[in-house]
Write a structure and sequence with these properties.
Blueprint: H1 2-24, H2 30-40, H3 42-63, E1 68-78, E2 81-83, E3 90-92, E4 95-109, H4 113-179, H5 185-220, H6 244-254, H7 256-276, E5 282-294, E6 298-316, E7 319-334, H8 337-343, E8 346-354, H9 362-428, H10 434-468
Antiparallel strand pairs: 1-4, 2-3, 4-5, 5-8, 6-7
Helix pairs in contact: 2-4, 3-4, 4-5, 4-7, 4-10, 6-9, 6-10, 7-9, 9-10
């Protein structure tokens, strides 16, 4: 019995440790979120797989420059009419046959097609690696922006809860007045309506916070039952001292998207060289060594000679005498497998030239298509330049507007805070009416929410600008 109690206690302890560990892992800092996303994100894993495919293609194109060497071997049984591989005669018997060989094929020249293909695949591999880095930059930006959005929604939720608690406190005061019939009954009813309004604001804020957390969970590729509980960072609002043109200049140097597109252009140009090789002759050398075996093969060895009658007669002096001849006798012996392979050994070596004369304009059209691919790659790079430059200009403008709005809201919160303090004292002492009180309260609460939104709106745009500069963390 005691033994079972010990086991049960151990199980409970392990369960508690697992629960405690899960509870400890529910809170993630921004750096931890980024690290988890870089490890788990499915889009990033897809980019890694594409880079691995490009790596394999590059390795194979380098391997194509080497000679091709292949061996072959077979063994079998044939029954019925067939050709004896040893004598090339028709035979009708069961025989065992075997063939083996070693063949070499190597391209000497084909207009540098193999070499240029290897160079093109090397550039494609480099571009794929750069695209992985660009995907990491995008992922870090998205995680950072979503994380800040969670913080923003959490700050707004905290403010709505504070508003709710302040309203509840005031409702308690008015409730006492209402019960004692010493206050204005309308003030108590208005506060009940304000409570309902504050509760609705809390529900909306909780929904926004949950949505932003779910977005972050998807980016991190975490189980759906994991709750992200972020902690506020020390986020100071400071003047951004770089112009939009300065940010764009740094983006040209640091953003991996530009480098990947530039490498794709170089790869497309190599594709043109590969296509042009179809106009040139292809020269290759080949060689081989082969041998075979047949169970029908025999080796005849002389055993003796004897005198035998031929069946003919000659007449001598009226007497028929048989004609005799000397016959040599042979003994058939099977040739061993090893001896046949050695005796039947043959080699071949040669050179092959393939000259393209006419192929339905296939080569010409392939070159034209590759040139179009180059132009498309150049247009894609120009489009990327234009899009990013316009985006940086727009984000920089919005960032400055958010900063100015934040500075203005700071003053507004300060003014509304003083107004609310005065009206709350006056209202509690019966000097002011409820309308003045609730107006100043709502003005202050809305200003605080707007200030929080402006702060994170500014920080979000600063992070976007830093991303374009290549500062991803």
């Amino acid at each position: 019995m005691k033994h079972h109690q010990i086991i049960f206690a151990i199980i409970l302890l392990m369960g508690w440790m697992g629960y405690a560990q899960n509870q400890a892992q529910e809170s993630y800092s921004l750096d931890e979120c980024i690290a988890i996303a870089l490890e788990n994100n499915l889009d990033l894993k897809s980019a890694d797989l594409r880079a691995n495919s490009a790596k394999v293609n590059h390795q194979q194109s380098k391997g194509n420059l080497l000679p091709s060497i292949n061996g072959n071997f077979n063994i079998g049984v044939n029954d019925g009419r067939s050709i004896d591989p040893f004598t090339n005669d028709f035979i009708t018997q069961e025989l065992t046959f075997s063939n083996m060989g070693l063949n070499l094929d190597m391209t000497i020249f084909n207009g540098f097609r193999l070499l240029n293909t290897a160079k093109q695949n090397r550039l494609n591999r480099k571009a794929a690696d750069l695209e992985v880095e660009a995907a990491k930059q995008d992922l870090v930006l998205n995680v950072t922006l979503t994380y800040l959005q969670v913080l923003n929604n959490k700050a707004v939720l905290d403010l709505t809860k504070q508003r709710y608690e302040a309203t509840k406190k005031q409702l308690k005061i008015q409730e006492d007045f209402y019960k004692n019939e010493s206050g204005n009954p309308a003030d108590y009813a208005d506060l009940l309506g304000q409570i309902a309004n504050d509760e609705t604001s809390i529900l909306v804020s909780e929904s926004n916070l949950n949505n932003s957390k779910q977005t972050l969970i998807r980016l991190l590729n975490l189980p759906g039952n994991v709750t992200i509980d972020t902690q506020n960072l020390m986020l100071d609002v400071e003047v951004y001292d770089l112009t939009a043109d300065e940010v764009y200049t740094e983006a040209l140097q640091n953003l991996m998207t530009f480098k990947a597109n530039e490498t794709r252009i170089e790869a497309a140009k190599k594709g043109v060289s590969v296509a042009k090789s179809q106009f040139t002759p292809e020269i290759s050398v080949f060689g081989g060594i082969n041998t075979n075996y047949s169970s029908a093969a025999q080796l005849f060895a002389m055993t003796n000679t004897e005198i035998v009658e031929t069946g003919d007669f000659v007449t001598v002096d009226g007497q028929d005498l048989p004609v005799l001849t000397e016959r040599t006798n042979f003994e058939a012996n099977s040739i061993s497998y090893e001896d046949q392979l050695d005796n039947n050994l043959n080699t071949v070596v040669g050179i092959a030239v393939n000259v393209p004369l006419f192929n339905g304009f296939r080569a010409k059209n392939n070159v034209a298509l590759q040139k179009i691919q180059v132009e498309e790659s150049i247009l894609e790079l120009e489009r990327t330049h234009l899009d990013i430059k316009n985006t940086i200009a727009q984000v920089h403008f919005d960032m400055e507007a958010a900063y100015n709005r934040y500075e203005s809201l700071l003053k507004q919160v300060e003014a509304y805070d003083e107004s609310y303090r005065i009206n709350e004292i006056r209202f509690n002492n019966g000097v002011s009416n409820f309308l003045n009180y609730v107006t100043s309260k709502n003005n202050l609460d809305n200003a605080k929410v707007n200030l929080a939104n402006a702060k994170y709106e500014y920080l979000l745009r600063v992070k976007v600008l830093d991303y374009y500069r290549g500062v991803v963390n």
